[in-house]
Amino acid sequence: MIDVLIADDEEPALAALAYLLAQDARIGRVHQVSTGADAIRLLTREHVDAVFLDIHMPGLSGFDLARALQRFEHRPALVFVTADEEGALEAFDLAAVDYLLKPVRTVRLERSISRVIESLRQTPEPAPPSAELIAVTLGGTTRMIRRDDVRYVQAQGDYTRLCTAEGGFLVRVPISDLERQWADAGFVRVHRSYLVALAHVAQIRLGSDHPTVIVGEAALPVSRRMLPGLRDRLAQSTVRADP
User: Fold this and answer.
1) 216 Rama class: left (phi>0) / alpha (psi -120 to 50) / beta
2) What pTM did the predictor assign?
3) Average pLDDT for consecutive 10-residue bins of the chain (243 residues)?
């Protein structure tokens, strides 16, 4: 039997889905909440195998909640239950097991529960430490990016910009904190304004009057003060440095 959580701000839809789930012998406890914030609070204290969630809820949307769950050590299976036919692509980008349209039919729900159980039987490989996920806000929407995808970090006042192939994302964390926290993940400070991921460095030019590192299409300055530390890190990596 599996324990599930339903998140939906529409009381009739919440009650109807709870009733249908309770009729299935494979379902154990059924928790019910009406907001994404309530879902987060419940999931921090209760073990749940699957979450059935609506997309449109006040505060945290279903997509916001799904992104937040990616940071949980135990990640329940996700099933979106919604009247929105347009959200399926984004739902599956968030690794949803299924996408149910309201009103939910019993036969279709039974198939969804089977998919949830099958997904729980598959034991995923543990993610390496460098696969850390970072919450960023873009245009009022919260999304998650992988630290592995960050090519370099640029200091911008009280913020830092995480630069990826997709673009830059501002986070309110001092670059000095990221330098300390991400050192073991292969990031090295090359300038007071830049922290680079050695895995994304294509070339390093140290011999000129203006030392630089090439990361993607960006040529970033290397300060003389940072050169000794960079040389030490290079000695432990396979990145090529031009004399």
Assistant:
1) left
2) 0.52
3) 95 95 96 91 89 90 87 86 84 87 94 93 54 67 78 91 90 88 89 92 78 89 83 62 52
